[in-house]
Write a structure and sequence with these properties.
Chains A, C: It holds the Pfam family CoA_trans. Chains A, C: GO terms for molecular function: CoA-transferase activity. The complex is a heterotetramer, with 2 copies of chain A (218 residues) and 2 copies of chain B (245 residues). Chain A contains 4 helices and 12 strands; from the N terminus they run H-E-E-E-E-H-E-E-E-H-E-E-E-E-E-H. With 218 residues, chain A is of the alpha/beta class. Chain A has a 9-stranded mixed sheet with strand order 4-3-2-1-5-8-10-11-12. Chain A has a 3-stranded mixed sheet with strand order 7-6-9, with no helix packed on it. Chain B is α/β, with parallel strands linked by helices. Chain B has one domain: Glutaconate Coenzyme A-transferase. Chain B has 6 helices and 14 strands. In chain B, helix 5 crosses helix 6. Chain B is globular and about 50 Å long. The chains are: A alpha/beta (218), B alpha/beta (245). At the A-B interface, helix 2 and helix 3 of A face helix 4, helix 5 and helix 6 of B.
């Protein structure tokens, strides 16, 4: 066994946690992969913030409809039972706390659940935020999907975010390639280990001390 | 008789002043008022403030307006895209001002302008750089940031169908910013595929009531429809796919 | 000639001032009569705050539709070109300043354009405001339709309202049974006299001094 | 499979607690969830706070709920009507609390709750008794009054048609408060004339997306329709006209 799972396996792992009937927004990038693994026996409603609830999979090329796209500006379809709405209504849906789950990428997540995912604060970079800040604070459960470590080997789970914040105390769970972490009262709690990772090993990788989940916690 | 239709896009955008604040609808190609933007470029107004979700892409549409040096400031949520080279260069050269607004605050601030709201406490952006210097407030146990309406002199939007009173219906996710921008601008100018007789639109399904609309211009059916039926044959930007050229 | 015109004549007089293409909300009560006199050669869109723009006349009894009513809860019809919307969107339409004209009743109108029309402040009365305060501040032109005098002979045009206010500095014109007044910078200005009323006579009746309209004012 | 439909109105209103805040849709007879109100009376919850435009009329519906002594407080814009004798008596006897809210502030405060807005500056009510004690603020040259969201535990609303996901379409001016109340309540319970198969509703014309809806109960077609077509034969309260009895 490896110490890491690949991105598609991680997407499938997240998909498995999304319950029947959930309303879900999948952020641009890797989180979009989660859609491919949603269990076919569950009805799950995907929301895209540009105005559609009940989003379906991409169409074949000959059926691309420029009027039917997702937040990443990729062509999509609409399921039977879908509904269209305007941008303010769509963000009201998120900001009003009506979505069950949002899956986002991250540069950093702090022990308090702070999220940094919109800017590395690099000098001269052109800032762009899109819907990231609305997504971060809107959903009932904000899941982060990310590698545990950067390419330079630095932990993305961190005591305090050093990058510009997207939202305060908003992340509820982090799905990484090494393990799944809950944001708990005393810091991150390991929920599930992938491969032959151990809590000790992850504490060494991240430099953090993890809270212990109560026995019998869901 | 009320008739908001005009015969061509040049007439539709006539009279837009230098220095105007202009909301431009659309999210990607969906809902982009492409013909009106071209007409605005030809019309010549400059020193504009543009409100749009993005800051132009490629070399057409908004990007062409920027490249023509007509835009002083842009208010948007996501200026940086793979193909936003026109904006990128202007920004790096210090030739354009940027007000970056989280997308939900952008939509809600535009909505507030149309609804007569003087300001509102938003949950988005609290504790981030985009709330720097803004008033925050604890309400019912949660922290909010005070946001103000965004008004415009002109809105340029695209809808699928209108009648002569200016009632509008959109198509799928091309609805996006159209309805809120229509209500937030002093003059709302709309391009549509077609104008239908009064009474042909279902009053239950009208999304933008006509009182929000000032001028309507029919620009012909979008390339991926025929008599209102989706026929495809285009890429996501609406360009003919190779096998159809 | 009399010193007063009757209510229907007054409604017709107001109707004559509403231009082609105007969007208009007619308040509950006497203002509703204005609809009967709108010139048939003008397209004028009536708004009712319970969610309809493009309201038509009452239907014959056999066609009463309980789902199609006005703000006074009377059956109405919808014209070709009408649109339905929900209550928040409907009031946004008013509060956002998108209606051209609103015609309201009044207990009192002050020289500054303050309006009192929702409560006489009588002790023990049950307060009820409905949409009065939204209508008062929302339209571009707020016209009041009223008798000049109460049944007790007191002037409804007044230096300062003594009844509870509906809105501050909101009235633009007052159509009374004696004369039409504009709310001008220096107080009420007589715009039009009915019957053999004179400005002097109206000043005596109201106890006010009227501003003079500029010659050539519209 | 998501299926929000329940078989009867008693099941629809099950579990509503004493002390709950309940939004009740409707403006006049239009959009009144008459069958759900009757079910609530039978269910027995008491010490309720009711949010509605009015305070009941005649002896049925909300008035019957009030007469049964179940309502502690009512938040509305217009309690006093010709036939609001039940409320009038309770109010004069000091047996019910009233929060009077201008109708536009009522609608916008309900909308704010659903949209996650912590508060907003409203142009309505400034300088009046209904703004007494409220914070006001000068913004861009105009004075506004700060208003807060109105949230509810439960919304009882009426729509014309639903699907099993809870998507709703309304009919004419019966739409009124339904859409904003559906978004402002923790549990939204809807009575409809009929439930149609998923996909039967036009996604462009769905007014309330299903995620705002928790339970749907079909109560049969309203008396003035037959197979969706208006047939009339009723007065404005929906009662059979004499010549039809």
């Amino acid at each position: 066994m490896s110490t890491k799972i690949d991105r598609l396996t991680l997407a499938a792992r997240i998909a498995a946690d999304i319950p029947e009937g959930a309303t879900v927004n999948l952020g641009i990038g890797a989180p979009t992969l989660v859609a491919n693994f949603l269990p076919p026996d569950r009805e799950i409603l995907l929301h895209t913030e540009n105005g559609l609830l009940g989003m379906g999979p991409p169409p074949p090329n000959v059926e691309i409809d420029p009027d039917l796209i997702n937040a990443g500006k990729q062509p999509v379809t609409a399921l039977a039972g879908a509904a269209y709405f305007h941008h303010a209504d769509s963000f009201a849906m998120m900001r009003g706390g009506h979505l069950d789950v949002c899956v986002l990428g991250a540069f950093q997540v702090s022990q308090a659940g702070d999220l940094s995912n919109w800017s590395t604060g690099a000098p001269g970079a052109i800032p762009a935020v899109g819907g990231a800040m609305d997504l971060a604070i809107g959903a009932k459960n904000v899941y982060v999907m990310t590698d545990l470590l950067t390419k330079q080997g630095e932990s993305k789970l961190i005591a305090e975010c050093s990058y510009p914040l997207t939202g305060l105390r908003c992340v509820t769970r982090v799905y990484t390639d090494h393990a799944v972490f809950d944001v708990a009262a005393g810091g991150f709690a390991v929920r599930e280990l992938f491969g032959h990772n151990t809590v000790d090993h992850l504490e060494k990788l991240t430099g953090l001390t993890f809270a212990r989940l109560e026995a019998g916690a869901p | 008789m009320i008739d908001k239709t005009v015969t061509d896009v040049a007439t539709a955008v006539a009279g837009i002043d230098d220095g105007a604040t202009i909301m431009v609808g659309g999210f990607g190609r969906a809902g982009e008022p492409a013909e009106l933007i071209d007409a605005l470029i030809a019309q010549g107004a400059s020193e504009l403030t543009i409100v749009n979700n993005n800051a132009g892409s490629g070399d057409t549409g908004l990007a062409a307006l920027l490249a023509a040096g007509r835009v002083r400031k842009i208010i948007c949520s996501f200026p940086r895209q793979n193909d936003s080279w026109v904006f990128d260069q202007l920004y790096r050269d210090g030739k354009i001002e940027l007000e970056l607004v989280p997308q939900g605050n952008l939509a809600e601030r535009i909505r507030a302008a149309g609804a007569g709201i003087g300001g509102f406490y938003s949950p988005t952006g609290v504790g981030t750089h985009l709330a720097d210097g803004k008033e925050t407030r604890q309400l019912d146990g949660r922290t909010y940031v005070l946001e103000y309406p965004i008004r415009a002199d002109v809105a340029l939007i695209s809808a699928r169908t209108a009648d002569r009173w200016g009632n509008l219906v959109y198509r799928k996710t091309a609805r996006n910013f159209g309805p809120v921008m229509a209500a937030a601008a002093t003059a709302t100018i709309v391009q549509v595929d077609e104008v239908v007789p009064l009474g042909a639109l279902d009053p239950e399904a009208v999304v933008t009531p006509g009182l929000y609309v000032d001028r309507v211009v029919a620009v012909g059916e979008r390339r991926w429809l025929r008599d209102g039926v989706f026929v495809g044959g285009v890429d996501v930007e609406g360009r003919p796919r190779k096998e159809h050229v």
